Amino acid sequence: MSDLNKELVDLVWGRPTSGAVSASIFRRWTQGFVFSENEHTALEQFEGGPCAVIVPVQAFLLKTILFHRETSNWRHMTEEEQKTVLCSGLSEILESACSSTSTEFCLVSWAKGQIPPTHTHTKAQTQSQTQDMPVPESSQPLEGQQPTALAAEDLGFERFHSILHKRVVTSVSELQAEVLSLFQTWRGCCGVLLFLYSVILTKGIENIRNEIQDTMEPLVDPVHGHGSQSLVNLLVTGHAVSNVWDGDRECSGMKLHGIHKQASVGFLTLMESLRYCKVGAFLKSPKFPIWIIGSETHLSVFFTKEMSLVGPECPSEQARRVFQSFDPEDNGFIPDALLQDVMKALDLVSEPEYVSLVKNKLDPENLGIILLGPFLLEFFPDQDSGIPDSFPVYHYNGLKQSNHNERVEYVEGTALVLGFEDPMVRTDDTPVKRCLQTKWPYIELLWSTERSPSLN
What we know:
By secondary structure, the protein is α+β, with helices and mostly antiparallel strands. It has helices at 2-13, 23-28, 51-67, 79-97, 152-155, 157-162, 172-181, 183-187, 191-203, 205-211, 229-237, 270-273, 281-284, 315-325, 339-345, 352-362, 372-379, 431-436; strands at 34-35, 43-44, 105-110, 120-121, 126-127, 146-147, 164-169, 249-251, 254-256, 266-269, 290-294, 299-303, 333-335, 369-371, 390-396, 411-417, 443-447. α3 (51-67) packs across α4 (79-97), α3 packs parallel to α11 and α4 runs parallel beside α9 (191-203).
């Protein structure tokens, strides 16, 4: 690994002015993938930062648990099932990151005989193993004990990077078997980082640099320890692009990369409700009804089993998406000169004479703009989206302190997707609702708990 270490470290951690990565930030990233004792299908996050890896993995776990596993109780799993589901999710993310035609997957783990001691959590107390490294494989936790993060002072940034080993496999079946064999590694000390490095080397450092908008921006913020949007996009879509809109855009002669195909799991962000960005349809309308939710500082997951939410676009939804592609600043209108292009893109009659008639009807005051609402009403009136009036929903937040009684558990609720008319039910104007309104403008949420789930 030594020849790749510097490039890898620069890409993930940047080049801190002090010359060293903050010990406290590194320590926050040294945890493994650990399931909650209170919610068998939910991963737990100990401190802020690694949600950029843990939450996308959680979203893929939920996809497997809810839609590819036959069971009457999706919230219960044995330890053996946890192993299977976690490794399946990790393999899927690695497969999507592989951009090589030769199908090479890189797996980063500990060098032989260099496995660090792991803190184990038992009901009685948290015990620290403090032997000097290297230590034998037998230091892995016993069955039934929960591995947690290893303190940075026990391992340290430099030491961590000196005892890594990279292995290359060349088929999907070999990848899945190898990921499964490394289960104890993923759930032990630094499992999150080892997996992140595996994804990066599978994708290729140069490929990631070609996709990131600002190559000087590291994947992990050196001040706050949060993962970048490029990191989240890499894990969700296999592409480390920095933006969340559909396709590429030109800005001052520079090509800005976006999302190029429908994602398996989605992404919504509170930043859109604040008009800082606009998430495109490929992330807003994923293949499965599972959405990573971004706040200013944290990631969580909103999900449901209601597949009608992610059915094929109805014509009005397609028309809205196409119209908005001609309105990149999200003004809600386009110049009337673009009306013919929009109609052509939607396979509507676009002869100049007809377009002129439509233009006069939609802009009777001759203001030179076409509003989205009247355009949809003209061509796609009274269309039923096929979404049920109400359906059960769930919210996941992996941070203990963000959960009721500090127990990582899903918050259950009911969503009501209402029409344009004033809704009969008004719920609180909470961050989670404001975020979801970027996808469903008239959604109302009734949670089973007294307080709304936290996005932070």
